[in-house]
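ok so I'm stuck.
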Amino acid sequence: MADTGRTHIPLGQGVEALKSAATRQSTLHDGRRHPVVYRFRCLSLVLGLWLALGATAHGAEGTDSLGQPAAEPNWIADVPALTDPELGTLRLQETEPIAEPIAEPVDTPLAETMEEPGNDDDAIAPSSAVEDPELGTLRLRDTTPPRPMRPSLFLVMDVHYFRSDNILLEDRDPTDDGILRPSLGLYAQQPLSANTRLIAAVEGGISRYGTLTDLNYHDLRLQAGVRHDLSNQVSITADWTNRQLFDSDSGDRFLSDHSPRVLVAWRQNLATDLVISSTYQARWSIANPSDRSRVIQSLGASLSHALQPDLAVGLDYRFTYVDFTRRDRLDSYHQLVAELTYDLNRRTRFLLYGGYSLGNSTDHSVNFDGTVFGIGVDMYVPLF
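replied:
not stuck anymore, here's the structure
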């Protein structure tokens, strides 16, 4: 019931008060009816009836015809009502909806959403932002220029001089002589995947002896194969090589050699300036004339130490085993060589080496023992 600021007397309590006032007697006359007292009692009775009737009328104003509380003034329009079994009818006041906070677009750095550029200068230009009223801030990835192609064709040039005190491998009459060989070639590579590439090469050279000039010859070499990197340290190469030798005077070909080959190479950095490597190769030489056909296996190991960024020294060991397939001959020999390399620039290298070789052959006219010495310059030029 609403509080109107007045004192409300329940109907039952008003009747009890009226009875109490009618039966009360004055203690002054022992219950005798004195005229003044009588008039006072009559006045009190009338006043009590008036108060009782007023209380009854006021109670009727607080209820409707069904005995339910009267409707309160509609102070708030369209307020929904909830009924609770314990609290009764509850009215909830509607309020204006509170706007949810709008999340600001997160400006994520491009480095976190794009792939990291590789070592091929695959840079990506910063993206531009476009405001859309419905989608928010949009970032558009700029179109990048085509990735620059790595060179795949090289021009290779080298000049080497090799000397030995037994250049013809003769046992009875060793000859001390040297060979000067300039060459020019093309080397190509084509990636097939991240770790595999095709390789091809063509090379031509001229070999000139110091004193044995009647042995001068020209040579042409063709090569094609596949190289696969098993890891950062290990690679395997399968290729085919054709080598042809021509007499320098007449131009006649006196040797043609087709050689399929498998090469396994391993390389490991022991320190920042110390590298160890090893190789194994097996080659089947199918020659014309056929008495030169043979199967060659070799195992090598080398240790290289960088004295400066462009200067290195190394020690190389190689063991070779040769089995001639068309005649009864087996060769085996060792070679130990110390070498020095100096990079004149990024594309030119100077090489100096010297060592000793020794071995045996079932052909007693052959002798592998002797000293070796060499000097050379290698250079390559990327074409495209």
